[in-house]
Structure formats: C-alpha cells, structure tokens
Specification:
By secondary structure, this protein is of the alpha/beta class. The protein is built from 6 helices and 6 strands.
C-alpha cells in the first residue's frame, strides 16, 4: 500500500497578509509552529519509516521540511506554487476574485487557472501510486492534490480548506483514501 503524508508549508509574511505569489521565507511564527508540529504525534515516523521527502521548489516548503526532518528533501517542480500572473504581489482586497472563485477555468490574472493547478496536481498524484513519501507544498497545491484524490468535480476544490501546516494522509490501494489524523 502506498502512503502519502501531505503537509502544507508554513506561513510566510505574504501568506499571512493575503498577498498573491512570491517566494518568501517562513516567518518566526511559522518556524515555531513547525517545530511544535515536528514534535507532535502527527509526525511520528511509525507509518512513514525511512520514506523520502518531496517538496515544492519554494523557500517555505524547503524550510518547513528542514525543520520537520533531517532527511534530504527532493524538489519536484510539479508541486510548485500556483502561478498568479498579474496578481503577483497584490493583496486579496486589490483584486476582483469573483470569476476566479466561481469558474475553475477563469484566468482574470493571466496566470494559472484552478483547472490547470488541479490538472498539474492530478498528473503528479497519478504517478505516485507505488511510492510512499512525505510531501510539503503550498496549501493551494495540497488542496488540489486532495481534490484529485477525492475525485471532486471541477470547481469544488474550494470546499476544502487547507491551512498552513495542515497534515493529511492518503493511502492508495486501487484508489486513493483520505485519512485525517488525530493528535
């Protein structure tokens, strides 16, 4: 059976302030919260002994993994943060989110659509059915992976709220199954 432990990267200043895009370092609160998570039962190695770590190619994902494990983490570009196009650097209150939140194929920012983010996540997930690992990526990417695993219809990914440092477990044996851990 394949096991994937999915961890949303910790908070960055941009994420805390609702700024689209960028490649910030974890903030102090995120570093402290990540260290607390490292010592929690959620990350005890009994289900994932010696499994590799895979991270998005961002500072937040690399730093989150570095705090959580001494293992070397492999970067995978398919787990990169969403491309926000002309919205990069803008805050939530500076853009009109209506089309983007209601139409998964909308591209008001000339960046990556929700459909494209989910397709990228699906392509990655479908190649992982025989390799257990821990994955650290942006909360939006973790949400896309979960939406794919749960086979949610297009546009329903917003029904999943994924906070920074959220941990979810997927197992695969003919299909993906979501397991929500307890502390």
């Amino acid at each position: 059976m394949t096991r994937l432990r999915l961890i949303a990267a910790g908070h960055t200043p941009a994420l805390r302030h609702g700024v689209f895009g960028g490649d910030d370092d974890l903030d102090e609160g995120a570093r402290n919260a990540t260290a607390h998570l490292r010592d929690s039962p959620l990350l005890q190695p009994r289900l994932y002994p010696g499994t590799p770590w895979t991270v998005a190619p961002t500072r937040a994902a690399r730093q989150t993994a570095a705090i959580l494990t001494t293992a070397t983490a492999h970067e995978d570009s398919q787990l990169r943060d969403p491309g926000y196009g002309t919205w990069t650097g803008l805050t939530l209150d500076q853009v009109d989110l209506t089309a983007w939140l209601t139409d998964p194929g909308a591209r008001p920012h000339h960046g990556e659509t929700h459909t494209e983010i989910t397709a990228r996540a699906a392509q990655w997930l479908h190649t992982q059915t025989s390799r257990s690992q821990t994955v650290v990526a942006h909360p939006a990417v973790i949400r896309a992976l979960l939406a794919t695993a749960l086979d949610l219809p297009a546009g329903h990914h917003h029904q999943l709220a994924v906070s920074p440092l959220a941990v979810a477990h997927l197992t695969h044996h003919h299909r993906w199954v979501l397991h929500l851990p307890t502390a």
